[in-house]
UniProtKB/TrEMBL annotation:
Keywords: Coiled coil, Cytoplasm. The keyword Zinc does not apply. GO terms for biological process: centriole replication; de novo centriole assembly involved in multi-ciliated epithelial cell differentiation. It is found in: Cytoplasm. The lineage of its organism: Eukaryota, Metazoa, Porifera, Demospongiae, Heteroscleromorpha. Its main location: cytoplasm. GO terms for cellular component: centriole; cytoplasm. Transmembrane segments: none annotated. This is CEP63/Deup1 N-terminal domain-containing protein. Residues 24-142 form the CEP63/Deup1 N-terminal domain. The keyword Cytoplasm applies.
Amino acid sequence: MERVYGGPDLLDIVHQSARKGTLLSSCNSEVKELMHQIDVLLTKNLEDAQKEKELLKEQLQTREKEITSLRVHLKEKTTQIKRLQDELVKCDRQLKVKTSDLETQLLRLRTELNRLNKSYEKLKATKTKTQIMDERTQTIQCLEEKVLSYEEEIESLTNDN
């Protein structure tokens, strides 16, 4: 060992004193006191380390419980999301079917409306023709009546002359 501070090495002093037998007798009470202090320090350090270990263990257990709780919550939410996605897909399908049905009904109604419009136009044209025919028939009848009336008048005038 290299000496840093220039004095005698403590280990050398302890070895020399041990060979002479003076170390035990002169330092016995100091060594006992030093050993006692070391024991107290070690005990305190062990207690502190044990308390810290227990604290860390409790924190770890708390964190593990939190993680377990969060995993359960996550699993529930994942299940809920999956269920809602399935419902959304189902509703989307139903909406497409309903939309298709309504479009088909709308097409049928438009076709029926067009057919009814054509039929109405024909009926209107027929009715107009019928009205015209009726009016002409009435006019003809009226004219026939007038002709008859004129003929009777002419006949009556011819008979009178």
